Amino acid sequence: LNQRSRLKEDAIIGLIFSSFFGLGLFMVSLNPTSVNIQTIVLGNILAIAPEDIVQLAIIGVVSIVILLFKWKDLMVTFFDENHARAIGLRPERLKILFFTLLAVSTVAALQTVGAFLVI
């Protein structure tokens, strides 16, 4: 969206976050079963199953390992994309990698600490 519109990145992030948060709350309100909105917003660390802990640990370890190996490339890419391209890096792929790790980590953390603490 940043490349296709004149909006700034922070405005786009705020728009997307607010839209999807509102859509999620709307979808939860349509569900006939009882869902505690407070659990979605603030999380419930006591309701985590052992499988969820394993999943969080795997995602955390994989994310940290990838970030350790790609840290310098990511820093160059996000600091100066033209320089990264000039030294042979592929900024588009590195951005996709970083934002994929960010999205996976965010979704995994939502169940534990809720939407507000993740953001």
TrEMBL record:
This protein's record includes keyword Transmembrane:
yes
Pfam families (alphabetical): ABC-3
UniProt-annotated location(s): Cell membrane; Membrane
Q: Name one GO molecular function term.
A: transmembrane transporter activity
Per the UniProt entry, what are the Gene Ontology biological process annotations, in alphabetical order?
A: response to zinc ion
Protein keywords = Membrane, Transmembrane, Transmembrane helix, Transport
Its main subcellular localisation, reduced to a broad class, is membrane
Q: Does the keyword Transmembrane apply?
A: yes
How does this protein sit in the membrane?
A: Multi-pass membrane protein
Q: List the Gene3D superfamilies.
A: ABC transporter involved in vitamin B12 uptake, BtuC (1.10.3470.10)
List cellular component terms (GO): ATP-binding cassette (ABC) transporter complex
Q: Which InterPro entries match?
A: ABC_BtuC-like (IPR037294), ABC_TroCD (IPR001626)
Q: Which residues cross the membrane?
A: 12-33, 53-69, 96-118
Family, according to the entry, reads as follows: Belongs to the ABC-3 integral membrane protein family.
Descriptive protein name: Iron/manganese ABC transporter permease subunit SitC
Please report the organism this UniProt entry assigns to the protein: Enterobacter hormaechei
As recorded in Swiss-Prot or TrEMBL, the protein's gene is named sitC
